[in-house]
Amino acid sequence: MMLTAVSPMGIAIGKSAALPAITVVEAQERSDIGAVLIVTTRDGGGFAETLSKALGCTLPLTHGDVLQTVDKRAIWLTPRSWIILCAPDDEADLVAAINKAFPDREANASRFSDALAWLTLDGEAAENLLRQGSFLSFEPLGFPIGHGKRTPLAGIPAIILRESEARWTIGVERSRAQYFCTWLAGLTNSFEAAQ
Amino acid sequence: MSGYRLKSGGRIDRSKPLNFTFDGRAMQGFAGDTLSSAILANGVGTIGRSFKYHRPRGIYAAGIEDPNAMLEVVDGHGREPGLRAGQVHLVEGLQARSVTGWPSPQFDLVSAATRLMSPFMTAGFYYKTLKWPNWSWYEEAVRKAAGFGAPDGTVDGRQREYRHASCDVLVIGAGPAGLAAVSSLKGSGRDVVLVDHASSAGGALRWEAAQIDGSEGMIWADKVVADCQADGGQVLLNTFVTGAYEGNYFTLIESLVDHRGLKAERIWKLRAREIIMATGAVDRPLVYQNNDRPGTFLSTSVRQFISEYGVAPGKRLAIFTNNDSGYLTALQAAAAGMATPVVIDTRSAPSAAHVEAAREKGIEVFVQSQVADVVGGRGLRAVRVVDQAGKIRTVSCDAIALTGGATPMIHLAAHRGAKPIYDEASASFVCATLPKGWHGAGAATGSRELADVLAQGHAAGQAIVATVNSAPVANVALGMGDVVPMWQAKTGSAKKMFVDLQNDVKASDVQLAAQENYISAEHLKRYSTLGMGTDQGRTSNINGLAIMAAATGREVAKVGTTTFRPPYTATRMGAIAHHRQNDGFAPRRRMPAHSDHASNGAQFEDFGWQRPDWYTKNGSDREAAVGIEMTAVRTGVGVFDASPLGKVEVVGPDARVFINKFYVSNLATLKPGRIRYSVMCHDDGIIFDDGVVACVDDNFFLAGPTSGNAETVGAWFERWRQTEWPDMAVAIAPVTSNWAAIALAGPKARDLLARLSPDFDISGEGFAHMHFREGTIGGVPARAARVSFTGELQYEIAVPARYGQALMQAALSEGADLGAVPVGMEAWLRLRLEKGYLHLGADTNGRTTPLDIGMGGVVMKKAADFIGKRALSLPYNASEGREELVGLKPVDAPIKIGGRILADGYAQIPCPSIGNVTSACDSPLAGNIAMALIEGGSKRMGEKVKIYAEGKITEAEVCSPVFVDPQNERLHA
Asked: Does A9 reach chain B within 8 Å, measured CB to CB?
């Protein structure tokens, strides 16, 4: 028997798929994004070098920083934790690599691909959509390109990554993905977004 | 009364006529009118009936302070059942209707009945009379009579938008004080947001004659606004600040109006470093006999109607005043061509300049005089004036303007806890001290003269940042003068003197409240309904409080005010709801197999997550389906989605020591691959959560908190790690959402699990009760725990969430011939009740400790310290007579959940209670069963207790809470 996988929005798995209900921007579900959660038992800076070697990517040490390689993105989450975005198929290998490097679990990697649902919003209206549900500044100065923030968005916890001027990738808890997409789709009627 | 449109004047656009209807009558107004001014200009007198006595009422004020003008409004974007007319921008095609009076406000049949009944309808009459024989006898009629229209249940076409923002300085109010502050901050580099509820800035400058810095007031206002915008400031007009909260956080509602009406609303959530409260004041009316007749207006509103909207509220206007501002109204009215026969001044020595200016215009001035009564039922025809000597004169008029001083709008500061104090100088309540970062200016602080207002606004700006800007200089011909309070007319019946027009509270009602000892401001409000209307008592509170002061021989200051709470003004529910409708209304959490549950006919309930309560696939009604689901678990196998159960990984060299500090059971000895059940407490020893903990390896523990506490327990671990044990080498990873968990429960659960291709030994010996395994199931990574919430052989299988739906489907299809059925929450909870297992939150309360649920032995055996240990060692927590969890079996009738256990020796209520029924159900195996928390429960085995529930008293026998398989043979199968 082999169980089959379903994405948070019940669409395809392992590739990006359009979300047509969200009309004012180009919206995609990103089930091609996998993730690993890394936590450390002491200040993360002391583990960063070993972790980076095991992962094959450098870990950021500053709030808001996201460091990117060809196949991974490392998001600073707290002084003692990171999320590594990777291909879903790489998740198990990364977890194994970290846990091999730290057999006493001074640092630990957990499977996290299925904890979050990732969406990409692309378009000029995206900033206004995000502004509807968050108190963050989305101005370039407050939220520079290449940065990531963990914040409440539309009343739920979210991780927001700014990929370019008008392209944002957002991770919300998988169980809340349907709500979040409904919320975004509902904003189609929003006064400003419809302008 | 007969209002009319003046031939010239006002800030309306006479080139743009607008057609609208009021109660079906076609009328015309102009762009720039409000619904109030347009209705008034069309000569409408009575617009509705009063709340309680159905007395005729007309337009009373120009803005949100009007207690009378609640109308149903239909514009091009939707319908609202009760809007204040002064708040509604007139647009083409608008329809307005009265919401009180039947068949019409002019000919109201109910008023005849209420006229007869009114002597009996004093303050609090409903509390005294509508309880016999039962409130429900009256409820329908009272509900029908109350309120201002009803929503029609449809979704309107208005759009909603949220904005989050921050600024250096929030200036609330774009009147002279606010604008002076903005002017002061010009060039300071501060990020300024200026907010005003009106559609243009200027405040009272829109209708008062004043020169500022050598320019006409509104020219100065427009320049300040333009400078502010050029300076990078933001000006939000048509915007109410509806609430002020901690951390200088504000909610604002901005109205966006187009040619069809209110198109959109934008809710701002704004945080500011500094606040300038320049919220102004509203006129205070005077209280005299029949002071509510149509044709009665607030004095400032009369000036606003004349000068802003070009509307005369009547042909002959009398003014009743206790301060100089009344004369300004008289002069403006005379200048607009209205007959203005008289100013009735309560004072003995009014300002000579004002008196002289009035007399020059042929206006008669009666000093030391009051209005004793009015002539006219449906509209004012004359006033009777009594002077100091008691001489009564009748003055013909169809409108009267009242000013008893001003009431500062201090609501927002009061939302933040600023205490209003009575200021003798202005005869009003003001905030002597403001919250941190707040600066008061203008009429909101009790100031009355324009020069003072401008100086205060400028000073407020300078207090934030010193600039080189100079204070604006005012030039006005006549000032407002001091107020000599007159709270209630000396002549006339208090039973006809209305204090609160919206709620029909009379001076006699306030006096009655005093007689009946409802003398505190809060009691007065609730007893008489004073200030409880949607106008929030803007025009009534101070008069009511002063009359209470007089009735109780106290100073006004001693009576105080009631509590100010948001919102500042009525707010549409739609604006709060934003665009969130149906599934978008609230963040709902869905399990990975949600759609599969739906296709099985799941009846979802919100348990923090959308979870199946029962399945229509199993039965056509809840009881039938639950019975089948329970039977399947006891005889075959049930499949239950346990995905929301918490999953918190605790890792690191100190993980074992760390987690042992949270649970009352000893986890120090838990071996890899084993599981233990326990509860955790707060430091007061009260149970906070329960669940199982698996030891994955020596440095890796997997805690399984309850679904509702999954996040809380993760945060609880983190809090203690950071604050109390920062040196422990431990890390916490909450991973609940990453895993879907499906439970297989029943005697055939092992057979079913075998069909799902586990790659590990699942024999009874190889995978015993309370053991944990990692491996693969169905070809994907899996964590399996053999634990039981049902008392049966049970496995909980967790797979990455993407496989949750497939696992659910596979379990049901592979188990079809084993009798596998999906099991919902209700059956699951009843199964655990049969087994006597605790349901946290149902069988525990804010007092329950582990000692009360039979875990005393576990607690005693644990030598190591844990959170709550000390509290559990205190004598009180070990004392006899505490509520303990026990089982109950019915003696004469089924036991109802929530029933009160009567104290020993009592057979009837009222009586003391010794506990309550915490869980109850009908069990296919054990019949009607229950659990209860009962004082000294463990020592009452076999005792009969009486239970009061749903109006009946029944009897039950105290027993062990384990009703099924007390030997645990099933779960060890």
From this structure: no
